[in-house]
Amino acid sequence: MSGWLQHLPILPVLLPLLAAVLLLPPSETRRRPRAAIALAATLAQLAAAVALLAMADGRLAPAGGGGIGVYALGGWPAPFGIVLVADRLAAIMLTLSATLALAALVYSLARWERAGSHFLPLFQLLLMGLNGAFLTGDLFNLFVFFEVLLAASYGLVLHGSGAMRVKAGLHYIAVNLAASLVFLVAAALIYGVTGTLNMAELGRRLALLDAHERTLFELGAALLGVVFLVKAAAWPLNFWLPGAYAAAAPPVAGVFAILTKVGVYALLRFATLLEDAGAPAPFGGDWLFYCGLATIAAGTVGVLAAQKLARVAGFLVIVSSGTLLAAFGFTGTALTGPALYYLVSSVLASGAFFMVIEMAERGRTASADLLAVSFEAFGLGDRDAAEHPDEMAGVAIPAAMAFLGLAFFSCALLLTGLPPLSGFVGKFTLFAAAIAAPPQAPLLHAGLFGAALLLSGLAGVIALSRLGMRVFWDTERPAPRLQWIEAGPVAMLVLLCLALALGAGPAMRYFDATARALHDGQTYVGAVLPAPGAAP
């Protein structure tokens, strides 16, 4: 990379940090300028992510190390300094998070960002933590960015008011604080044994450990795997998710759809870098595959048992995480490309679904009361507007129920894997890849995985049909009034999923190329670390 392009990898971290600093001073009289700053920062992050996506593919400018851009902070090369690494997978995750964040932010500007304090700066800090976690090249800074995104998510999950939100938020905070403590212990063990936390160098150091040191390393890796599984909402560590996501404000729950994928990303990244040296459990072997199947089973039972759409959406997020864990734990690498396609589709669909649920259930007593309490507590707007959110100022879109019905139906198709949208393409390619896997993959694994995909989809169809009829066949409730600023983000996410289905061929080729690059750990290591014998 040359010129200003060499600084692209740092922009997804710097842009939200700068925006959060500008938005931190509260001001109730300058909402439009504050909203403009937040939107501009998020759009700039999306532009930077797309540019990194093009660079990783070799279209914008040649990147060093086989399409991998490495940014050494302060000019200190790895493993001595902090590095950000932008490869294909990191660029995909950055683009996905920025796209989802843009939709959630626009949706929140209709009313939800005013239902509590410091929504906009917390939102930008969440993006900073997400982007840093996808870009960082060492474990310690992964911990740092995890804490940044978690600290912001603590404030966002409590955004608004209500006893249910506080209770669910405290459970969410307690679990993640415990996971952070385990992360520190794991990082300390790994550093004590290997002398490094740089992820590219760990593979080299692992091959040089003796039996005693290898045991200690595997203990640290097991603890680290537990942390990543908590983040990924894997069974039995996912009890916190449905309540927290259901209680969160709709745009918050929408952007939270990608948080579990941070844990999945960390598992995948760590496993592929240690692949050549023999990745320990849970990063290697069949352990991750069966953990994914158990997670799908737990999510499927939750989907059938849930009596509220928001909780169904939370359990569907768990099902998607389980599907990814099982795919990445499958013997061989044939499922990695289809799994990345499925990841993108499920995140976009889940984010849209959380927002659709709020619009579809608008006017029901519980939702109206909760929003009224939030507005009254913070003195935002008059009491009548808060008590009747459907009658708030704004231009309502025509045929609101038709739009909501189509959006709900599209999200249901996407999340259950029914044709013809990208959810079906993702599940079909996963199942086809499992059937056509190399001979070393047990046929039992393909059968179990296929059965899990079909049964979880069937459970989703049953639950969404049952609860959808309660919402859309309620003839006593007047049709909700929707604003374009609310309908637009949902339509954008659904249309992106439609485009992903229509362009399934080129998209799958890109994801397959990403999978090949990901499993070629030596290319990543060679791009990050100087050649042996080279001067630092």
What does this structure look like?
- The structure is a single chain.
- The protein has 536 residues and is an all-alpha fold.
- It has one domain (3-24, 31-528).
- The chain is 71% helix and 1% strand.
- The chain has 23 helices and 2 strands.
- It has helices spanning 11-23, 31-56, 64-67, 88-108, 119-135, 139-157, 163-194, 199-206, 211-231, 241-247, 250-256, 259-273, 287-305, 309-329, 336-360, 365-378, 383-387, 400-416, 422-435, 443-472, 484-502, 504-519, 521-528, and strands at residues 69-72, 83-86.
- Strands 1-2 form a two-stranded antiparallel ribbon.
- It starts with 10 loop residues before the first helix and ends in an 8-residue tail after the last helix.
- The relative contact order is 0.11.
- Residues 365-396 have low confidence and may be disordered.
Mean pLDDT: 81
Q: How many alpha or pi helices?
A: 23
Largest sheet: 2 strands, antiparallel
In total, how many domains does the architecture comprise? 1
Radius of gyration: 23 Å
Task: Summarize the entry for a quick read.
This protein is mainly alpha-helical.
What distinguishing features does this structure have?
536 residues, mainly alpha, single chain
